[in-house]
UniProtKB/TrEMBL annotation:
Keywords for the protein's UniProt record, in alphabetical order: Antibiotic resistance, Membrane, Transmembrane, Transmembrane helix, Transport
PROSITE patterns in the record: MFS (PS50850)
Organism: Streptomyces bobili
Superkingdom as given in the UniProt entry: Bacteria
Protein name: MFS transporter
């Protein structure tokens, strides 16, 4: 499910991120976004895997890895929410 959600959301993310840029900068911005996503995905796999390996016997490593992954997901959702609110507020002020 995670892969399906990511695959469906990335095109929208790219469109939203580069939509306000001049045409000559859109390719660079799209490449930076894609690179950031790839680096984040690599770290997102490596960190929980290392936590699973060092987390202790039995299911303790899995528990630790999923708690950390959930914490990062919550942090990302919070930052995205704050960023989107700031942008919407800025656009509302610019229209007035």
């Amino acid at each position: 499910m995670h892969g399906l959600g990511n695959g469906l959301s990335f095109p929208s993310l790219n469109i939203a991120a580069v939509g306000g840029l001049p045409d000559e900068q859109q390719g660079l911005a799209s490449g930076l976004i894609t690179s950031s996503i790839q680096i984040g995905a690599g770290i997102g796999v490596a960190l929980p895997a290392s936590l699973m390996a060092t987390g202790g016997p039995g299911l303790d490593g899995y528990r630790l890895a999923f708690l950390v992954a959930g914490g990062f997901s919550l942090l990302g959702a919070t930052l995205a929410s704050i960023g989107l609110r700031a942008r919407v507020g800025h656009e509302t002020q610019a229209r007035a």
